[in-house]
Amino acid sequence: MKAIPHDFSELLRLDFDDIVERARTLDDSERPAALDHAVSAIHQRSEASDRLKVVLFVQTLLAAITDSSLEAKVAGRVGAELTQIITSTADSDEVKRSAITAVALLLIKASDLNAQSASILRDALISATTSSDPEAAAFASRVIQRQYRTHAHGGANKDIADPWTR
Amino acid sequence: MREFARANDVIDRAIATRQGKSKRALIYAVDENFVIRVALDGVRGMPNAVKHETLFHNADVRAAGELEVVDGVIVEVGDVSGTYGTPGRIQTDPLFASAVLIALDEIGAPIESAEHRRLARMAGML
After folding, report:
1. What residues pair up with B26 in beta bridges, in sequence order?
2. Is the CB of A60 less than 8 angstroms away from the CB of B87?
3. Roughly what angle, to the nearest 10 degrees, separates helices A115-128 and A93-109?
4. Rounded to two decimals, what is the model's pTM?
């Protein structure tokens, strides 16, 4: 097992495949701390390729987490950072697409989201539906539709505060 | 046939050792026309190494990831490709799951029924 790099400089020297592999080697107990480190690292990086690598790391960590098991506090912190990326004018389309995937995963992986966090995520996804990047806009629409359908049928995420109603 | 298989096995183990993995992954990508291509994952930088982007010569794809095959049957379809940034897309994007399912069904690929149902559920077909 590889140690979680605290300053992420080592991680950023890896290529995308290796970053994904590194995220997958962490176990359940290490992933929340890794998510926290990654969220902090996003602030420290301004170059597009570095930001894409960190967000891809976050996306892969979230994908590997068991559904409905991520502590709400961690989910809230990660969600707040990701929504800033989705709504920013500075980040590239690639970074934003990765952030949208990560937000969609947060809705599945969080054990419980409070109304405020759910509302922030929902608003970010809604804003992404009008993105100038057609792929990102279409994907955000599908995430919203899927989430709404799941809630409408009382599906797997019924315990998460409904992000689609105020 | 046997010699060829044995030679391949030796090569696989040698590459797997360099990668620090117990075995080489089987990677796939599905293109815009729902054509699926599959190959053993190569080591980046090695001559003729096949990676996800190699499968369709850097073209955009509908889906990419890894396949787990046991006794000739696909038992797990994954969504992990660093190149295409796809981790988590099977769970979050119905079009990703449906693209894989359509592509595999089109060629009659053997898929374990539970995995077929999981993909169909993710694709919103069930």
Report:
1. B40, B67
2. yes
3. 150
4. 0.85
Indicate whether A3 pLDDT > 60: no
User: Coil, strand or helix: which one is A71?
Assistant: coil
Contact B57, B39 (CB under 8 A): no
Q: What is the ipTM of this complex?
A: 0.84
Of B80, B93, B124, the CB nearest to A20: B80
pLDDT reading at A18 higher than 80: yes
HSE, side-chain direction, 13 A CA sphere, residue A30:
14
What are the residues whose beta carbons fall under 8 Å from the beta carbon of A7, sequence distance 6 or more?
A: A41
Q: Is B42 on the interface with A (CB under 8 A)?
A: no
pLDDT tens for A69-114 read: 999 999 999 999 999 999 999 999 999 999 999 999 999 999 988 8
Q: CB–CB of B42/B28 below 8 Å?
A: no
Is residue B17's pLDDT more than 70?
A: no
Tokens 């290796």 correspond to what residue? Answer: A18
Long-range contacts of B75-81 (CB under 8 A, 24+ apart): B75/B112, B75/B115, B76/B115, B77/B104, B77/B111, B77/B115, B77/B119, B79/A63, B80/A20, B80/A24, B80/A60, B80/A63, B81/A17, B81/A20, B81/B27, B81/B29, B81/B52
pLDDT of residue B14: 44
Indicate the residue type of A137.
A
